[in-house]
From TrEMBL:
Organism of this sequence: Kitasatospora cheerisanensis KCTC 2395
Compartments where located: Cell membrane
UniProt GO BP: transmembrane transport
Superkingdom of origin organism: Bacteria
Principal cellular location given in the protein's record: membrane
Gene Ontology CC terms: membrane
TM regions (residue ranges): 25-51, 57-80, 101-120, 150-170, 182-201, 221-240, 260-278, 298-319, 355-374, 380-407, 419-441, 461-480
Keyword tRNA-binding belongs to the record: no
Pfam families hit by this protein: AA_permease_2
Coiled-coil positions: none
Matches recorded under InterPro entries: AA/rel_permease1, APC_superfamily
Bias (Low complexity): 490-505
Record region (Disordered): 1-20, 490-512
Protein's UniProt name: Amino acid transporter
Length: 512
């Protein structure tokens, strides 16, 4: 038997050590990856107006309120990463502490939701590029009239962006993070400049009530706003999937928390600026084009086009930031034999999971292509994007419970650490389960019949059910078809807590 981790659980030896990835990034690059994954500029540009239609002039309040349970979840992620950095992150931790079946489902839905999100964002990115071309006076290419409402044009252009992002991701985290850093610098410079000017130039009277969650119109508005706001923070956990590739595993934890604080600051700043410039009716009526409308109120062309450029950069960066953690999650599942060994192949030079990266991209491209010719696929993608909140709430809560169970001994030994590793994750997980449960109930209660339409509640509710159901079937195949040792003896029995990651032959102790 290998050395034991601090929680007292033995970690069986996994035999020969697997190939390891290259440790190539530090805490700064990790912050960049997390910030790109959460895509704050995209959330601000599209999401604030939608939230305003729900909570009124309380955007800062709902963003601050939603931050609290997400912070509690992040505490659980950070503590687990300290003792067991692994490309599988939540898949590994939930499987080892709670149940291999729950762990597999966590990894499975992570992969599915991100692939669908990538297929959706591919079209969004293409549309932003076509709109940007129109602002620059380019309305046609040889033989083609550019149309931002053309699904075919936007999807094909977005596919080219995704392919380019995948090439960079295969090259290595250092290059991917460097590229994303410059995109983020430009995005945030534009965002901060316009929002800062909006705070000064806006003619809507400022009110401290904007920050008071108790003045949100109703409990229903509060719950719906929380669903949308939590979705804006979704993606911060991507940093923990690269724990094997940072110089120090603690850098992933530091990067995750710093990115969350950065997101909070940007959301509060932008929410206040939007409400200083736009009356509530204009803010709510221009949800999907909120950032562009906000910029048009503050500046003339060509300056007013800069936020659209920033939005395009944000969408492109989020495509790359999505494929990186998803490929590493699939790599971890392949190492355990729950997925095929093809997912475990590393690039001979760059030591990245190149095969998994290209496979994930290929599936996303295929799904985006199908959506062009099969209307049901388009509806499925839209419904999945709308229903992601339920799945996110579920796997966040599972990680929170895993953290609380694994570190429960701290309740007797170190109360301060127990608050961060047990209490905060449990409270955060409970809130998100309530939010996810409320969202599921609203889907169920919104109609009395099933219809293949993105706005049909029963159809939207069927999407997370389908994702979870497919995960159960895939888990059964891995358990009895592939005979994966992951299910025979838990996640630790498959390849070891840290042995699988290549991080260390001896799992790290968890200091109290």
């Amino acid at each position: 038997m290998a050395a034991t981790v601090e929680d007292g659980g033995p970690v069986p030896s996994s035999g020969s050590a697997p190939e390891t990835m290259r440790r190539s990034v530090g805490v700064g690059a990790v912050v960049v990856i997390a910030a790109s994954s959460t895509a704050a500029t995209t959330s601000i540009g599209i999401g604030l107006g939608l939230m305003a239609g729900v909570v009124g002039l309380h955007l800062p309040a709902i963003m601050l309120l939603a931050f609290l349970p997400v912070l509690g979840i992040a505490c659980g992620y950070g503590r687990l990463n300290r003792v067991e950095p692994d490309a599988g992150s939540s898949y590994r931790w939930v499987g080892r502490v709670l149940s291999p079946w729950l762990g597999f489902l966590t990894g499975w839905v992570n992969i599915l939701t991100t692939i669908v999100f990538m297929a959706y964002t591919t079209t969004v990115t293409g549309s932003a590029l076509v709109q940007l071309a129109g602002k620059a006076g380019l309305h046609a290419l040889p033989g083609v009239l550019l149309d931002p409402d053309s699904s075919v044009q936007c999807t094909l252009i977005g596919m080219l962006v995704l392919l380019a992002a995948t090439v960079v991701a295969v090259r290595g985290l250092d290059l991917a993070a460097a590229l994303q850093k410059y995109l983020l610098i430009f995005e945030y410079a534009v965002l901060i400049a316009f929002c800062g000017y909006g705070l000064v130039a806006g003619d809507q009277p400022f009110s401290l009530s904007w920050y008071n969650p108790f003045e949100i119109p109703s409990l229903s508005a509060l719950a719906q706003g929380m669903v949308l706001a939590v979705f804006c923070y979704w993606g911060f956990e991507s940093v923990f999937s690269v724990g094997e590739e940072v110089h120090d595993p603690k850098d992933a934890t530091r990067g995750g928390f710093r990115s969350l604080l950065l997101m909070l600051g940007l959301f509060l700043f932008a929410g206040t600026a939007f409400q200083r410039v736009l009356p509530l009716d204009e803010l709510a009526d221009n949800g999907a084009t909120g950032l562009a409308y906000f910029a048009d109120r503050l500046a003339h062309q060509p300056l007013a086009a800069l936020p659209l450029v920033a939005l395009t950069c944000s969408a492109a960066a989020s495509l790359q930031a999505s494929v990186i953690p998803t490929a590493r999650g699939a790599l971890a599942m392949g190492r355990d034999g729950t997925l095929g060994r093809v997912w475990t192949r590393l690039h001979p030079r760059h030591r990245t999971p190149s095969t998994a990266t290209w496979l994930i991209t290929g599936i996303a491209l295929a799904l985006a292509t199908l959506s062009l010719v099969i209307p049901t696929v388009t509806e499925l993608i839209s419904a999945t994007v709308n229903a992601i909140g339920i799945v996110v709430a579920l796997y966040y809560a599972l990680v929170a419970i895993a953290s609380a169970v694994r570190f429960r001994h701290l309740l007797r030994e170190n109360l301060a650490e127990a608050l961060k590793a047990v209490v905060a994750p449990l409270l955060g997980g409970a809130v998100l389960l309530l939010v996810g449960g409320y969202l599921a109930w609203t889907f169920y209660d919104s109609t009395d019949h099933f219809e293949l339409a993105a706005d049909n509640g029963w159809f939207e509710l069927s999407v997370p059910a389908l994702m979870i159901g497919s995960g159960v079937l895939a888990a059964a195949w891995s358990r009895w078809g592939r005979r994966s040792p992951y299910f025979a003896s838990g996640a630790s029995g498959a390849s070891g807590a840290s042995g699988a990651s290549g991080a260390s032959s001896t799992p790290a102790a968890d200091p109290a």
